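During the no-cost extension, the postdoctoral fellow (Dr. R.K.) reprocessed legacy sequence entries with the updated structure-token encoder. One reprocessed record is reproduced below for audit purposes.
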Amino acid sequence: MIRRGSEEDFDEIYSIINDAAIAYKGVIPADRWHEPYMTKDELRVQLEDGVRFLCYVDNDEILGVMGIQDRGEVNLIRHAYVRTQRRKSGIGSLLLLELISSSTKPILIGTWKAAHWAIRFYEKHDFSLVNDQEKDMLLKKYWVIPDRQVETSVVLVDKKYRESRGF
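Re-encoded structure tokens follow.
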């Protein structure tokens, strides 16, 4: 079952993010990795900045989370994670499809350039990479991230975005 995340889910969302983010260790640039990957304070800042999570729940346990953030003319998919032991079971796809179907705005997704599995996942769902110039512009316009993260990231866009830009 998919449902909206609530304040009561905070600790589980935090746990899932940090469990699943271990996949980045040794893959993303070493200067971008830290443990925990996301602190509780950082997660609170994300929530205060408007990130709203959907949770995939099975037997009263949250197995995956994916956030969406309204940034005016676009929505951003943020913090998409599935518990390590439940990866590749379709949970991420179900969460993404739910967020896509509920969005009337173009959707953008940022991820690490080195996270090839994540890029393939989004491409499988009809998102496409933008060039470096557009990526830099989008990351600086819609995300609040350090310049070093801009350098080491990519942006994928959906069909609505491509059509609105004449791609």
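The longest strand covers residues 61-70. Residues 23 and 151 are 20 Å apart (CA to CA). The remaining legacy entries will be reprocessed before the final report is submitted.
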